[in-house]
Amino acid sequence: MRRPRLWGSIAVALLFCVAFAHFCVRIVPADGPSVLAPVPRAARSADAGPLLIPVEGVPASALADTFTQARAHGARPHDAIDIMAARGRAVLAAADGRVEKIFWSHDGGRTLYQRSADGRLLYYYAHLDGYAPGLREGQGLRRGQRIAMVGSTGNADPSAPHLHFAVHAMTPGEPWYGGRAINPYPLLARR
Q1: Does a structural domain hold residue 66?
Q2: How many domains does the chain have?
Q3: Is residue 108 part of a domain?
């Protein structure tokens, strides 16, 4: 007589475990963000463009279109905008996508390349002081997720920390260092 009662207890425990797993457990892919940061209020303002302003707390009205300014005494175009901010300020993912490359370069210092979710754009973040803990190549990113900190690595002036932010239009299969530079300013701020 004890056996049927034992099987009944096992059946009830098994049903409880199945119900718990079904209603209470959420499976998240390993490359997903652990915590999604809320979109900063400044990036949701009426003067913001379709991309999130990638530096926490910087309103669209504080941006300057430096895309066409020359660099290195006129030797090369800027092809980006500089977003001035205090060293250590959070750098946020401008859109959903994936970390394509984490790279150190002479000019850009600590850099991060993010490919958009549809693969048609590449976002380039440079002069970073550091990366968010656990950030790695191939990791999925959500718009507004903290990815790095503003700095002045590479050829940036140490007394003027900023984020060098560029956007490149990509063709399918094009590598992270390719693409055609497009002006990020109108994507971050409405004119």
Answers
A1: no
A2: 1
A3: yes
Q: How far apart are CA 45 and CA 59, in angstroms?
A: 8
Q: Give the pLDDT confidence of 51-73 residue by residue, as tens digits.
A: 999 999 999 889 988 877 655 55
* Token digits of residue 13: 């425990």
Please return the burial class of 97, using the count of CB atoms within 10 Å of its CB with bins 0-12, 13-18 and 19+.
buried
Q: What pLDDT is recorded for position 70?
A: 57
Other CB atoms within a 10 A radius of the CB of residue 183 amount to 16
Residue 105's CATH number: 2.70.70.10
Give the structural domain span for 101.
71-189
Name the pTM for this structure.
0.73
Reported as a single tens digit per residue, the pLDDT across 140-178 is: 999 999 999 999 999 889 999 999 999 999 998 899 988
Is residue 62 situated within a structural domain?
Answer: no
Q: Is residue 164 part of a domain?
A: yes
